[in-house]
Design goal:
This protein is α+β, with helices and mostly antiparallel strands. The chain has helices at 8-13, 17-33, 69-75, 100-130, 141-150, 154-170, 234-239, 241-256; strands at 38-42, 45-49, 53-59, 63-67, 84-86, 89-93, 175-179, 182-187, 189-194, 202-206, 227-231. Helix 3 (69-75) packs across helix 4.
Length: 258
């Protein structure tokens, strides 16, 4: 597993030469299609930002992963039918040329989406400022998570909710909320968060530094201050419930001693 990179160039440099060529190519295509976007690393992979996250990309053993969001995949699903796709994700094989024109259209679509969303948000703020102030009750952390889950594809919701219940049972002390655009859990400090959902892949990110003191076959990565847990399905998560529970209980105890 590649170590966390601080910038896109460093991230790309960690791949084999032939993969670097395609990663630099898709980076250049996105730059040209979205000249106003800025680059960063989010969820551990290169990300372009323009009025919020625009698109992500990454390299894998046999393909380049491109993440334009669910809208980007749905609108262009006919053009993307030749590739492996899932909710918000498309895989471009390493042994084929990148479809530059198609990627450009998808990125420009996402730019328009984000700009329109930002415009609507600003207009909403103006309307709110011009109207009498009405206090609305802020949703609780659990309500935030439930609202987040309701927006997901039913199959994805079921996968994430299964792991969510294991986490809550393992750590009743944990508070739940949406942070970093995903269900997140904290006890005195932030402890773990769901990573981006990928086809047949559930990801948990333990980002409290105390996680490096815990040894487990489930914990992956050699990062300085975090570890990852991958499950291929909710069934695999249930099968490893006991070990995941042990990890959560142990890190809560470590945080509680601080």
């Amino acid at each position: 597993m590649q170590k966390a990179a601080k910038d896109t160039s460093t991230f790309i440099a960690g791949f084999p030469a032939e993969t670097q060529v395609l990663l630099n190519r898709i980076r250049a295509i996105i730059r040209k299609a979205a000249p106003g976007a800025t680059e960063t690393i989010s969820y551990g992979i290169p990300t372009f930002v323009l009025e919020g996250n625009l698109v992500h990309f990454s390299g894998y053993k046999s393909h380049i992963g491109f993440y334009p969001g669910a809208g980007g995949i749905e609108v262009f699903k006919k053009e993307l039918s030749a590739y492996v796709t899932s909710k918000g994700t498309v895989q471009f094989p390493l042994d084929k040329s990148l479809p530059a024109a198609l990627i450009t259209r998808i990125v420009r679509f996402r730019v328009q989406q984000n700009l329109e969303k930002a415009k609507t948000k600003k207009e909403g703020k103006k309307t709110k400022a011009a109207s009498p102030a009405v206090k609305s009750k802020k949703p609780t952390g659990e309500e935030q998570v439930k609202a987040y889950l309701e927006k997901l594809d039913p199959a994805v919701k079921s996968e994430i909710d299964t792991v969510r219940k294991i986490i809550k049972q393992a750590g009743p002390e944990l508070s739940e909320r949406i942070k970093w655009n995903a269900p997140s859990y904290y006890y005195k400090e932030d402890i773990l968060t769901f990573g981006p959902y990928k086809t047949h892949k559930l990801l948990l990110v333990f980002h409290h530094p105390a996680i490096v003191k815990i040894k487990s076959g489930l914990l992956e990565g050699s990062f300085k201050d975090r570890r990852l847990v991958h499950f291929n399905s909710k069934e695999e998560a249930v099968k490893n419930k006991k070990e995941l529970t042990r990890i959560i209980r142990e890190i809560i105890q470590l945080v509680g001693k601080k």
